[in-house]
């Protein structure tokens, strides 16, 4: 015997046709015996049936039009959005490259090259400018040399022998030696009290022997030298320079009594080599 | 729907044709308003388009549609705090008269209006389950999936809702 509660629960299922035939028979047999459930069932069935009779609410035709409009709008926006998806990214980049960046790039490159060209053209060193610069540099270096020669000259006057030595060594840095300097050097060579200074001066002058006045000075110097060391060095230089004019002076030197024996033999050898 | 998901948006028209009436009636019973329901239908279909990538195909399209509809509805009732079936009785009785056959009496018409009134007085939860089962003609199994619950729970709920509706109806009839 099923109770009313069980049956009640099944009524809704019956309405929905969700009962098995067996269950249905069970409910039906109960309803026959139970007026309360019978009443319940009838009321429920009535409500259920009436629910089915309720007219189905219908949307207005305008809704479809609105939907279609929405769909269309959406479709177009989606198409636009799709251009931002990865698949279209490459195309987008390509498009940008072709449409926007390319002319810009070309334009900027053009500007850069124009700028470079203009800069080069404006600052292109003209020949006159080059020569002007060169001239300035030359002038500067000449001035520099002049200054050095001035320094040399003043240094040669210095009482200190070592300062005078320094002065003589400066001649090595000169490309072109001023006649004043040569004169000063020759004076030093003939008159300097210090033998060492005279020897260094002699070496320096030997370097400058291309100058005829130097040669002349060197030959004449033979007569002024009394130091054996300087005499020997001079004799060596005469051989080196193949200065035949010195033979006469060397012979005169041989005649002098105070000349050292080794120097004399050196001079004789030199005369032999020169003649 | 898969075709829509794949980008064939025109197939959406087909889905609209097939489902918009059902959807409208569901929303109509839930809101009681004609124009609002139309707006909501529109809204649901818009969401279908917008969230078409979330359609996995695991559940049926119908289930998915009702999910969206319920979300839209929830948004709507949040905005319009009152969610009672707000029927325009005159409007509705017009519908009933025009829809009724020639032999239908005024009495019957009155009955239907009462029933409609009763539905409006039902709690939203019960109304929804009755609308889904009776008007949308969905199976318990489908309703269970839409409501994320079990078939058994749906069964119990339908039963309780029917009982309550019947009680309200009988009360109003007296």
Automatic annotation (TrEMBL), chain A:
Protein name in UniProt: HEAT repeat domain-containing protein
Transmembrane residue ranges: 105-122
Domain Putative zinc-finger: 4-38
InterPro entries listed in its UniProt record: Anti_sigma_zinc_sf, ARM-like, ARM-type_fold, Znf_put
UniProt keyword annotations, A-Z: Membrane, Transmembrane, Transmembrane helix
TrEMBL record, chain B:
Residue ranges of coiled coil: none
GO molecular function: DNA binding; sigma factor activity
CDD domains per record: Sigma70_r4
Alphabetical GO biological process terms: DNA-templated transcription initiation
Annotated ranges, domain RNA polymerase sigma factor 70 region 4 type: 115-165
RNA polymerase sigma-70 region domain segment(s): 15-82
Alphabetical keyword list: DNA-binding, Sigma factor, Transcription, Transcription regulation
InterPro entries: RNA_pol_sigma-70-like, RNA_pol_sigma-70_dom, RNA_pol_sigma70_r2, RNA_pol_sigma70_r4_t2, RNA_pol_sigma_r2, RNA_pol_sigma_r3/r4-like, WH-like_DNA-bd_sf
Domain of life per record: Bacteria
Pfam families in the cross-refs: Sigma70_r2, Sigma70_r4_2
Family: Belongs to the sigma-70 factor family. ECF subfamily.
Database matches in PANTHER family: RNA POLYMERASE ECF-TYPE SIGMA FACTO, RNA POLYMERASE SIGMA FACTOR HI_1459-RELATED
Designated name of the protein: RNA polymerase sigma factor
The species this protein was found in: Xanthocytophaga flava
